[in-house]
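in:
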């Protein structure tokens, strides 16, 4: 799959930093690749935080990451931290 602008939602923001939510069926390893979010570069700033829900393979995985490079030529996110969950 590829980036889908309909799945990127700005949740809040202040002082030049925004919090985003993105859902996808792509694995996070695909989402964190440089330029995955290239089409969204006009909306993004360095250090914007993004909460990614990726559901590749049917099991949703939540990852917290942020944009560390945003330009017209490149958009990059850090590797992020997967939020683990136990359902007992």
């Amino acid at each position: 799959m590829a980036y889908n602008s309909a799945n990127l939602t700005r949740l809040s923001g202040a002082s030049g930093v925004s919090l985003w939510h993105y859902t996808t069926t792509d694995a996070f390893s695909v989402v964190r690749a440089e330029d995955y979010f290239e089409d969204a570069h006009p909306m993004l700033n360095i250090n914007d935080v993004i909460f990614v829900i990726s559901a590749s393979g049917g099991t949703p995985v939540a990852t917290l990451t942020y944009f560390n490079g945003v330009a017209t030529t490149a958009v990059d996110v850090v590797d992020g931290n997967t939020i683990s969950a136990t359902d007992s």
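note: The chain has a mean pLDDT of 90.
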